Amino acid sequence: MITTKDLRIRFSDGTAIRYGDLRFDSGRTYALLGASGCGKSTLLNMLAGILTPTEGAIEIDGENACAWNQRQKDAYRIRGIGYIFQDFKLLEEMTVADNINLLRLEGVNTADMDDLLDRLGILRLKRRKVKRLSGGEKQRVAIVRALIKKPALILADEPTGNLNVETGEAVVRQLIENAGGGTLIAVTHDERLAPRFDHALDMNAIARFEPGEGANGHV
Ligand SMILES: Nc1ncnc2c1ncn2[C@@H]1O[C@H](COP(=O)(O)OP(=O)(O)O)[C@@H](O)[C@H]1O
Ligand SMILES: [Mg+2]
User: Fold this and answer.
1) What is the pTM of this model?
2) CATH class of 2-210
3) How far is the CA of 157 from the centre of ligand 2 (A)?
């Protein structure tokens, strides 16, 4: 289980976002909904340890992850988190298989690659360079790369953002079906996809913007 307590982040320009207390139960699936700019990616990046909260705590299975040192955070991110980025972060000049096998450098066992590629319907693309794939195919490669670690936590930032409605539906269904017992937190601005998840959180209402310091003498 992941919980946040009084979670807040302030950026260098003074903008602050308060998230308060949130709870993500193990093995459940969550959709984060809300308008562009409402704070969805910022939350994912704090849960991944990429951004550090200014205040409050993130507890992972009862441990305060904010108190971990960089080595512990890196270990958790590499072992425990599958992060599917909106822009995929794949190496275009390399094949699908080589992109996934790069994870071996981090000690990840990629023996299940063929099985996962098959389940996502892209096994025939294994030897193809990423630059020759469609957006939906790249999205599926990014999903395989995230799931192959069998992560406890899967973070997906707008996995359907670049896809048409039909492909987006299929990708979300495959992501949920192959989450393998991991907790899934997926950002989507397509409310039609919300019923596919166990829970849908409206980030417009949850993430509160606060004025910069000096606006009323305190924060
Ligand atoms: N490094 C930063 N410095 C200042 N403001 C930021 C920074 N990162 C994000 N923001 C602001 O925080 C808000 C939330 O951003 P983000 O989490 O990316 O939104 P979303 O993913 O919901 O579109 C936006 O208003 C954005 O401009
Ligand atoms: Mg975003």
Assistant:
1) 0.93
2) alpha beta
3) 7
